[in-house]
Amino acid sequence: MRRLPDASLRGRAITVDLEGESIPAIEGEPVACSLVAAGEPMLARSVKYHRPRGPYCFAAACSHCLMRVDGLPNVYTCRTPAREGMKLERQNAYPSAKVDVFETIDWFFPKGLDHHEMFAGVPVAEQVMAKVARQLAGLGLLPKEAAPTPPESRTVRTRVAVVGAGAAGLAAARELTERGIPFLLFEREDHVGGRLAHGAPERDAPEITDVATLAPASLTTRATVLGLYDDEAGRFLAVGVWEPTGTRLLKVYAERFLLTPGGHPPMVPFENNDLPGVYAGRAASLLLRRHDVAPKVAALVGWGDELYGLARLLEERGVKLSAVVDLKGPPPSGAHALAVEGSEPKAHGMRSVSAFSFTPREGSRRKVHCDAVLVSVPVSPSFELARQGGAKVSFDAGRGLFRVEADADGRTEAPDIFAAGDLTGGGSAKDAAAAGRRAAQTLVGGLS
Amino acid sequence: MSKSMICSCEDVTADDVRHAVSRGYCDVESVKRYTGFGTGICQGKSCLSAVAALLEKEKALKPDAVVPFTPRPPLFPTELRLLASAPVDESQPPVGGLPQDVDAFASALRPEGPLPAKAKVVIIGGGIMGLALAYNLAREGETDVVVLERGYLCAGASGRNGGGVRMQWGTPALVELAKRSIDLMKGFARDLGINVWLRQGGYLFLARTDAVAKRLERNVTLHNRYGVPTRLVTPDAARDIVPGLTMKGCVAASFNPEDGVIFPWPFLWGYAQGCKKKGVRVETYTDVTGFEVSGGQVRKVKTDRGDIACDTVVLASGAWSPEVAKLVDVQLPNEPHRHEILSTEPLKPFLGPLVSVLDSGLYFSQSMRGEIVGGMGDPKEPAGLNMGSTLRFVSRFARALMEQMPHVGHVKVLRQWAGCYDVTPDNNPILGRTPGLDNLLQMSGFVGHGFMMAPAVAERMAKWMVTGESDELFTRFNLRRFAEGSLEREDMIIG
């Protein structure tokens, strides 16, 4: 990864401190982005085998980018804005992440280490293993300081709480605004639009709603919904809202909950899929579109429209592609000149990606050079909140993911929970916006 | 070295999932527990669909049986200090349960094969009690045993507890049982071939009032008499045992270095595998629907997979026992009570013992994996089978924990869940024959400490059942005592 030569100036140039080394960064960008752009793709060692790890999803949905940041363990660096002088340390490595003696665990146990049965009942070995395991387990060190008290929590009431300001959530918010229904819209990112803002561009995609056209004070960005709970006063969302003085807890009671949180970029199991330099497709498009950071040569693997959209996006910005491998079937005609159907993908490299191999449907195994492997598959719907609220979740065997069951109007099995967009199982951003609007219209009908 | 990661938070490979399937753990909840996938920082966001797809594709599960594991809030790692800031109305009882769809087990998970038409012993409940009993019966030579479990192994309290094991009890019977259990736990891996990660870091009990301090003082005399090295410690000495502990509001403490924590799940897998090797049937996802009774004897156990004729039935269903007993018109005095618990991000070792403030019911320890695991009882919790999670609990717990350990304010909670205590009027178990139904044996009512008692209780119960020799345990804790009013109350219950 590198910052593209045609990068626009997006903020103040600063430096951050990576274990004593100064790393250039742009103030406010995710610090994991600063690190990969500066040629530091390895941010950690993994918990059990001490495998090198670098950021993967850029969506706080994996654990590859966790570092110790300013003395706090396990911080998502994909979510942490770069600040002048911030201190970054790689975790779970001895003596250092670059030369970690515990890497040998990975080599000693090529077939995996069965902690259930290893040395079970073997005198002495069992006790020694228990002692060693305790020291090796755990990720990060307890902070040395007591934590300051966060800002005081607040309780708010609204008619409709909308979770996620992607295509579906924004369209719903627009609809609610037009109808004069009080609502609150929460977005985890620092920007709205979801994949419209940071995914691969889609044909017929709607414009990102201008947030100035929404009801005043209805939108909160950098607001992470933590759960859907009940208490004596009713059903509410617990939301952690970023503020300059710390994160504030909000209890948001609502009559209806419209869930449009999109999905998580999933892991796709293949050999060395955790090597630094393997990124989720959504991460690659986010880095490119929002931060002008991209690989020099990328190998793309996955399936679905977004894979080919990503290939086009990368090439438009001068990224060379060395392979585009569709794992599900023959690529659609005209999808991409390089596109082939293939299987058994594998990433190669010692500390980070240097090559990618796969078996094409026709012909023998191929290996290509690259500095990044980009895994683009449909996102896994973020169904957790909906399920907590009583919506039915079912497995879509065809696409290998769980989705929330909702009718065309966004109704779920729980009367106060509505769902739209990726949550209900995919489609284009245009479809998501239409579904969001329709769900907003429907839920308004039932409001007291 | 090449590995194909399916859950990168916990370094679980695709082959690890296949290995779990080869051991008979095919459903998502069981694979989660056996491999550890989905239990790390991301809580399954990046791996759950991949694991589900693998299980479906490789025919470990039918499509309808592919159900996601229970959502465990918070949805993102959340600092204890933030959770502590949530307002709590202590005057109100906690509310909030699990949605029906999450609470029930999908019928597609029910095994298709037939149950045996008859068995000498049918054990209802595949928690640690039922499985440990079945294993010990087999060891005593009785292998014509069927264990019925309504969900997956670990679905009940045995899979939901904090893994604390202690000898610090208030009555001789429990001190002795716990002592024997911990001995058996030490040999568990040798006997059953699976690690249970017993770590004897001690239990540090804190007392806020003189009345509770007196209880601890009384315990020391009692424990020492039974060879348990419990000692009273001053607040300063307690702070030496747990660096960073404030001892705020505490007047006394007691410490037994031989208490500890274990990893609960492997006990169930170990006993279940031991049972199967000896020919005992362990049937998961099988619900008991009724009984056939005649002549003061249970003749058949009815299930949603057919009936089993039997000589003896053991009721080992924990908090569900009163519900099952009702099916045969037996009234048990136990009541289920929700207890909530949470687990944090894993950290390098910083906490040796399990610490508990006896007055408030707060307890916390550090697991072998490095997580802080802890809970706290709620005096307002109403009776009922409820395993829902509340913000109220995490808030109350976070405040109480930070009062004793201010340094943990930045530590992030990864997941919360709940289980049910099986509460009896005297905090003691119900064991032995049922008055009026001679071949229905009770093995429930353990009030949140069944897990640590099970190895010893099961050993004695199996011997008592097979040899017919008398054992005072089954008289002392017989159901009859509640009608007779001869109750000796256990007062060392956390929560």
UniProtKB/TrEMBL annotation, chain A:
Keyword Zinc: no
Stored PANTHER family: ANAEROBIC GLYCEROL-3-PHOSPHATE DEHYDROGENASE SUBUNIT B
GO molecular-function term, one example from the UniProt record: oxidoreductase activity
Domain FAD/NAD(P)-binding residue range list: 362-434
InterPro entries: 2Fe-2S-bd_N, 2Fe-2S_ferredoxin-like_sf, FAD/NAD-bd_sf, FAD/NAD-binding_dom, Metab_Enz_Cyan_OpOx_G3PDH
Name the record gives this protein: FAD-binding protein
Protein keywords: Oxidoreductase
Superkingdom of origin: Bacteria
Coiled-coil features, chain-numbered ranges: none
TrEMBL record, chain B:
Keywords: Oxidoreductase
Signal sequence, start to end: none
Transmembrane segments annotated in the record for this chain: none
InterPro entries: BFD-like_2Fe2S-bd_dom_sf, FAD-dep_OxRdtase, FAD/NAD-bd_sf, SoxA_A3
GO cellular component: cytoplasm
Domain (FAD dependent oxidoreductase) ranges: 120-464
Molecular functions per Gene Ontology: oxidoreductase activity
PANTHER family referenced in this protein's UniProt entry, alphabetically: FAD-DEPENDENT OXIDOREDUCTASE DOMAIN-CONTAINING PROTEIN 1 (PTHR13847:SF287), SARCOSINE DEHYDROGENASE-RELATED (PTHR13847)
Protein name: FAD-dependent oxidoreductase
